[in-house]
Specification:
Blueprint (H helix, E strand, L loop, with lengths): L1 E6 L2 E5 L4 E3 L4 E2 L3 E5 L5 E9 L6 E4 L2 E3 L3 H14 L4 E9 L8 H16 L6 H11 L11 E5 L10 E6 L7 E7 L9 H11 L1 H23 L2 H21 L9 H17 L4 E4 L6 E6 L3 H7 L7 E5 L6 E4 L2
Parallel strand pairs: 7-9
Antiparallel strand pairs: 1-6, 1-16, 2-5, 3-4, 5-10, 6-9, 7-8, 10-11, 12-14, 12-15, 13-14
Length: 328
């Protein structure tokens, strides 16, 4: 009973930050993301066997203790499949771990799908999304390709909180995401701790939640119309809103570094020089930028990003979502 799955990160353009239920990973707001292609990916093999004396996790060749959320995902799968076998998870990240590149999203999505397949379950994308969500909120969006919305839902049991596809990856093939690395170290405050502190202490966060409905509908329209200027403006303003709320958290959470701010300024200068918007930045729980642009501007944007603060850039297109490499 073994399956291998590859999943890729997603980058949110309307961000998830703050939970209404920390155990079920239920968010306070819906979010929208773009699943990236397999330039960066996590490959995870799950095997259930009576030969294993306990659950085991080997991450990038090294043995690790399973996180509670990973254990919970496995338990849900075992219960559904009516099996009581232990599992061996072997996972490899083809991306810098925990630098705000959503490696938890690709990892937890790959685990959810591989575990359910290895147990012989044939879950719908909605069920897989909810299973991935238990591992890490943003992972529920990585079970689908293209443009994805995680609908926050209202129910206490979380059965209405899952991701749906807004548009397929082929909808906007010209879109590029240039991952702009200024610092590849691990993030200081895990998003899980950070977002709860925000919910508990930030007054600005309440305002953000009140107005995020307009941001979500504006973003959906921009994506469906492939209106890059509108998409870019909402993306940058939304990232800035998130990081303002982080600073309004007490004690404050500061993910943006001086280098991040240099990147932001470089993008604004580039747009100004062009007399139109050709690039947009967004930042998650880390200092590295995700810079969106269109294929025709890619070289120009990369040139603008050639600055001492930028260590490396990795360009991704919109991806098609997880792949099953083999089945039992
Ligand atoms: O699911 P987590 O705990 O990795 O939280 C992700 C939070 C952000 O990346 C900052 C925003 C998002 O929607 O992906």
């Amino acid at each position: 009973m073994k399956a291998t799955v590859e999943a890729t990160p997603n980058i949110a353009v309307v961000k998830y930050w703050g939970k209404r239920d920390t155990r079920l990973m239920l968010p306070l707001n819906s979010s929208i993301s773009i699943t990236l292609d397999d330039t960066l990916k996590t490959r995870t093999t799950v095997e259930f066997s009576k030969n294993f004396r306990e659950d085991e996790l080997v991450l990038n060749g090294q043995k690790h203790a399973l996180k509670d959320e990973q254990k919970r995902q496995l338990d849900i799968v075992r219960k559904r499949a009516k099996i009581s076998l232990n599992a061996k998870i072997a996972s490899e990240n083809f991306l810098p771990t925990a630098a705000g590149f959503a490696s938890s999203a690709s990892g937890m999505a790959a685990l959810a799908i591989a575990a359910s397949k290895a147990a012989g379950l044939d879950l719908s994308s909605r069920e897989l999304s909810m299973l991935a969500r238990i591992g890490s909120g943003s992972a529920c969006r990585s079970v689908l390709g293209g443009f994805v919305e995680w609908q926050a839902g209202n129910n206490a049991d979380g059965l209405d909180s899952f991701a749906i596809q807004i548009a397929q990856e082929s909808h906007w093939p010209e879109l590029r995401n240039i991952i702009t690395i200024v610092d590849a170290r691990q993030k200081k405050v895990p998003s899980r701790t950070g977002m709860q502190r925000t919910v508990e202490t930030s007054k600005l966060f309440k305002k953000r939640i009140q107005t995020i409905g307009d941001t979500l509908s504006g973003m959906k329209t921009a994506i469906l119309k492939k209106d890059f200027e509108k998409f870019a403006i909402i993306t940058m303003q939304e990232s800035n809103s998130l990081h303002s709320v982080m600073l309004d958290t007490f004690p404050p959470i500061i993910y943006l570094s001086d280098a991040s701010k240099e990147v932001m300024e470089a993008i604004h200068s580039l747009n100004e020089e062009n007399g139109k918007i050709i690039a947009a930045y967004t930042f998650d729980a880390g200092p590295n930028a995700h810079v969106f642009t269109l294929q025709k501007y890619e070289n120009e944007v990369k040139k603008a990003l050639q600055m001492p603060e930028v260590k490396e850039t990795i360009t991704c297109k919109v991806g098609s979502g997880p792949k099953l490499i083999n089945t039992p």
